[in-house]
Amino acid sequence: MQFVFDGHNDVLLRLWTHAKDGSDPIAEFADGTTVGHIDAHRAREGGLSGGLCAIYIPSGDLVFADPDVEGRYITPMAAPLDPLPSLAIATEMAAIALRLDAASAWRLCRTVKDIRSAMADNIFAAVMHMEGCEAIGADLSALEVFYAAGLRSLGPVWSRHNVFGHGVPFAFPMSPDTAPGLTGAGFELVRECNRLGVLIDLAHITEKGFWDVAKTTDQPLVASHSNAHALTPVARNLTDRQLDAIRESRGLVGINYATAMLRADGRSDSDTPLGDMIRHIDYLVNRIGIDCVGLGSDFDGATIPEEIGDAAGNQKLIAALREVGYGEADLTKLARENWLRILAHAWREDAA
Ligand SMILES: [Zn+2]
């Protein structure tokens, strides 16, 4: 078994959504369920030892566009969100993360040392991530409060615009150069994350925003759940120029299992072979090196290949990689060690 530390999941969104309908988030995660992708049991079965768990504010107005006869689609951008309801929702999701920790349903990790110790104890190692910072105002005071609650990673924007910058739409085929980059407040956010030791995630940001972060941050460049634009030209994927910058910074790309970001036709379809995942991983490894590629499943946030199904099927990807020739040392890097190196760097821990 190659234990996996994964760069992106939306299990907090699922638990929060179900809690609105009366479900107990602690029981849903600890006791297991048949819905969604991650709980303690399925994670253990698939060797999913932990990952970045996103606080994400849903966009009620988002409606995914159907492809036209040529397979093209442009989903209209979700509208910007109001700050106060966003703060309320983010607080509720952070509280779920803290309650799961208090109940020992998972371990909320603030250091790589915490992650390794949770892995050794066979308990899910959760890292609090924020996917789009609508809950944080331009004065950044909420950032310090969320940091105190355990936040250790954030993407300034999701696929919508906010006070910090601009996101890319869900569109195929389309370049990620769709809108401006960081705002003045966005540059401040990046500098403050550098000061605190919070990882900055470049998934969902426009190409201009990517370069704005690149010239400002002192961290390696990281896209937690994105794939190669050369193979699947959705606006969410990374161009070769972006990939080269990630390589030069010794950063990381987490492979997204979302089928719309893996398939050559950009469609969302669970009937997608693991071969499409291997194609993207091979491409990234060839372009940026084995040290700069990891996993970023998007479990509980995307349509993933049915062969994997959920967290319990995670080792099927590892097995498929083994079959095409990846050795155990390289698989260890892909599965967890690259992520742990990046986090140790962003969090300024001694080499873990
Ligand atoms: Zn995402």
Automatic annotation (TrEMBL):
GO terms for molecular function: metallodipeptidase activity. Gene3D superfamilies: Metal-dependent hydrolases (3.20.20.140). GO terms for biological process: proteolysis. InterPro entries: Metal_Hydrolase, Pept_M19. It comes from the Bacteria. Pfam families: Peptidase_M19. Coiled coil: none annotated. This is Dipeptidase AC. Metallo peptidase. MEROPS family M19. It comes from Rhizobium aethiopicum. The lineage of its organism: Bacteria, Pseudomonadati, Pseudomonadota, Alphaproteobacteria, Hyphomicrobiales.
